[in-house]
């Protein structure tokens, strides 16, 4: 029993990481139909921000706290720049955007290699986040709990922004019907850029979280990006609720399968499960009702 | 778009004066040129360079399929590495078994190294038969593509969803192969292949034979793909790419149209993988994962995805640039590769092939402008 609970907690913490990454993706994918393969490199940017900060701020706890907003800004600025330079010219060609942003991600990876070197680097976790707590025989690692909390906080914050602020209302309007939003006087281009800023910034936050559980390297983003995209596809594009459920669902499925079989078999089984799921719900768990044929 | 301007079946029926010779003049001339170029290559290139060219031609075979599925069908196939890998592994498994049999062993060398139990895994056994292995190199990729394509296209999963799923498939296969160290060679893959159906691959003469086989297969597949492009199916495929709903309303089932393109492209990738193994002597997970899978698309994107010749030449050029530049300046090559993708896909979606048409149009325009005095103004190409 405790094994199952332990394994589920591992799954939930995998899910929390996936969720942090998928949140930004579902936002940009949902609003613009754009697949941003460079999202993984924004994660990397967030992680390296933490690394650089720790060189100037010796206290690990303080540097982590400063890193969270700073990584958001750095990754967000990179995203906004990418949107302004390339993506806004490619709105009508979503598949081409995928390849173009892949090209960008190659260049960003090489840039990181040139600046920080090819080998992975490491940061120090604050003392508070090292160690475990035990609840009813289940061992919960502190850093995993922190990531889980961070992910849930991000979901909450994003939900509040989308529901309550005027920016959120504009974003939802553009997602539901871009043309109608535009004729209603919404500056859709500005909304797009803001969305891209927030979505990419969330990737930066995810990068900070990842420094707590693994090394920082130029290719760290690519390890997560495909899984995160699968979360978005299964959850339903632009649907926060769907992403949350799917991220935790896939995380638990993955870790339970890993326990009973091997990592590689688990990957294959999860993929088969996703294809089977799409037979049942090709548009994902939750869909936005529109009159569009596409 | 850059559709070929050869007469279709209907017009050739209406105009019987268009002879067979006329119809195949341009592709025929092209074929002759290609045969000459590929035939001269062994005379002027060293054995080492010829071997590299054989490798590039394998990538070009994949590009023929990419051009069909992506260029004409609009299916962004980001998982061609899967089919390339299935074909390659099937071929390599047979060659490894044949190598082992030549030296009187029952197990391939890597299995002895990793200390597997002395029995050959059951799914290796049929690969001792050359006919079975050859059939599997093409049929298994087609079967996998047919299954995935059927499930995905039937439910109208398309565009980005399809691209991500096919990419995830590539990731899953390479991760699975790495995990099965004892039976697939793991990260190393299947290496050090000595013979090819009884011919030693260390002999330059036999390497040349492998090169000629690859070149011939490439030209044959290009000819077949061209016939597919100009057939009614080819037109339907373009229609599905440009307006799937309209094709559906006309009474066709777009799922079947896309499925054929995807399956044919997969078969070509499988064959390319099978030919890659004797040419290069290795197949490994690193050659079939996410990154190489996107690499298969890059060449076609740079050369011109919808143009068969453009895609093939693009694949050869990008592969050549990669192996020449990546050794000397690895960093510069990565930047260049990224930049190529951004520029070619972002700003020249027709690839370099569209530049040729653009230049040709401009030249005919400047030539006709002086005579046609009533030409409309404002057309500055």
From TrEMBL, chain A:
The chain crosses the membrane at residues 12-37, 57-82, 145-162, 196-216, 228-252, 259-280. It is a multi-pass membrane protein. Belongs to the binding-protein-dependent transport system permease family. LivHM subfamily. The keyword Magnesium does not apply. It holds the Pfam family BPD_transp_2. It comes from Streptomyces wuyuanensis. It is found in: Cell membrane. One of its GO terms (biological process) is amino acid transport. Its main location: membrane. GO terms for molecular function: transmembrane transporter activity. InterPro entries: ABC_transp_permease, ABC_UrtB_bac, BCAA_transport_permease. Keywords: Amino-acid transport, Cell membrane, Membrane, Transmembrane, Transmembrane helix, Transport. GO terms for cellular component: plasma membrane. NCBIfam families: urea_trans_UrtB. It comes from the Bacteria. This is Urea transport system permease protein.
From TrEMBL, chain B:
It is found in: Cell membrane. GO terms for molecular function: branched-chain amino acid transmembrane transporter activity. Keywords: Cell membrane, Membrane, Transmembrane, Transmembrane helix. It comes from the Bacteria. GO terms for cellular component: plasma membrane. It is a multi-pass membrane protein. This is Urea transport system permease protein. It comes from Streptomyces wuyuanensis. The lineage of its organism: Bacteria, Bacillati, Actinomycetota, Actinomycetes, Kitasatosporales.
């Amino acid at each position: 029993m405790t094994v199952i609970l332990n394994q589920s907690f591992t799954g939930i913490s995998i899910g929390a990481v996936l969720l942090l990454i998928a949140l930004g993706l579902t936002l940009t994918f949902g609003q613009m139909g754009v697949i941003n393969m460079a999202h993984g490199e924004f994660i990397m940017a967030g992680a390296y921000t933490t690394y650089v900060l720790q060189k100037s701020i010796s206290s690990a706890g303080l540097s982590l706290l400063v890193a969270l907003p700073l990584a958001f800004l750095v990754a967000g600025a990179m995203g906004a720049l990418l949107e302004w330079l390339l993506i806004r010219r490619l709105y009508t060609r979503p598949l081409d955007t995928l390849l173009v942003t892949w090209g960008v991600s190659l260049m960003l990876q090489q840039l990181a290699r040139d600046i920080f070197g090819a080998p992975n680097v490491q940061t120090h976790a604050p003392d508070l986040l090292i160690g475990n707590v035990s609840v009813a025989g289940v061992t919960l690692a502190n850093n995993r709990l922190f990531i889980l909390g961070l992910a849930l906080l991000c979901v909450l914050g994003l939900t509040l922004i989308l529901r309550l602020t005027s920016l959120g209302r504009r974003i939802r309007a553009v997602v539901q019907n871009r043309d109608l939003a535009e004729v209603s006087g919404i500056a859709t281009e500005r909304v797009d850029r803001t969305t891209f800023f927030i979505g990419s910034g969330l990737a930066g936050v995810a990068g900070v979280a990842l420094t707590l559980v693994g090394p920082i390297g130029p290719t760290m983003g690519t390890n997560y990006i495909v899984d995160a995209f699968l979360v978005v596809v299964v959850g339903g594009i632009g649907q926060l609720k769907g992403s949350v459920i799917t991220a935790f669902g896939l995380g638990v499925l993955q870790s339970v399968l890993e326990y009973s079989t091997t990592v590689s078999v688990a990957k294959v089984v999860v993929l088969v499960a996703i294809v089977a799921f799409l037979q049942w719900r090709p548009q994902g768990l939750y869909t936005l009702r529109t009159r569009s044929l596409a | 778009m850059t559709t070929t301007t050869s007469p279709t079946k209907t017009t050739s029926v209406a105009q019987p004066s268009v002879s067979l010779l006329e119809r195949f003049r341009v592709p025929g001339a092209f074929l002759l040129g290609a045969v000459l170029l590929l035939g001269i290559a062994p005379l002027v290139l060293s054995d080492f360079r010829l071997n590299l060219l054989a490798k590039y031609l394998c990538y070009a075979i994949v590009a023929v399929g990419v051009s069909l599925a992506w260029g004409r069908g609009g299916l962004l196939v980001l998982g061609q590495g899967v089919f390339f890998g299935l074909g390659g592994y099937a071929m390599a498994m047979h060659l490894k078994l044949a190598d082992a049999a030549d030296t009187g062993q029952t197990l391939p060398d890597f299995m002895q190294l990793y200390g597997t139990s002395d029995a050959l895994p059951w799914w290796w056994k049929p690969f001792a038969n050359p006919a079975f292995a050859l059939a599997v190199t093409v049929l298994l990729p087609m079967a996998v593509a047919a299954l995935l394509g059927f499930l995905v296209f039937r439910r109208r999963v398309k565009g980005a969803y399809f691209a991500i799923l096919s990419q995830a498939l590539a990731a899953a296969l390479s991760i699975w192969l790495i995990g099965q160290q004892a039976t697939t060679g793991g990260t190393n893959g299947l290496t050090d292949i000595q013979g090819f159906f009884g011919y030693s691959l260390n002999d330059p003469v036999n390497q040349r034979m492998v090169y000629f086989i690859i070149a011939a297969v490439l030209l044959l597949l290009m000819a077949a793909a061209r016939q597919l492009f100009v057939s009614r199916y080819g037109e339907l495929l373009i229609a599905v790419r440009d307006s799937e709903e309209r094709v559906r309303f006309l009474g066709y089932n777009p799922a079947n149209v896309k499925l054929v393109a995807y399956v044919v492209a997969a078969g070509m990738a499988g064959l390319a993988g099978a030919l890659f193994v004797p040419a290069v002597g290795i197949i490994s997970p690193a050659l079939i994962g996410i990154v190489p899978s996107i690499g298969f698309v890059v060449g076609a994107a740079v050369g011109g995805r919808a143009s068969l010749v453009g895609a093939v030449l693009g694949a050869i050029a990008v592969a050549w640039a990669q192996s020449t530049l990546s050794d000397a300046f690895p960093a510069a090559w990565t930047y260049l590769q990224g930049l190529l993708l951004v520029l070619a896909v972002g700003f020249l979606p027709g690839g370099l092939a569209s530049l040729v048409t653009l230049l040709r149009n401009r030249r005919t325009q400047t030539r006709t402008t002086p005579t046609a005095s009533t030409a409309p103004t404002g057309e500055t190409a």
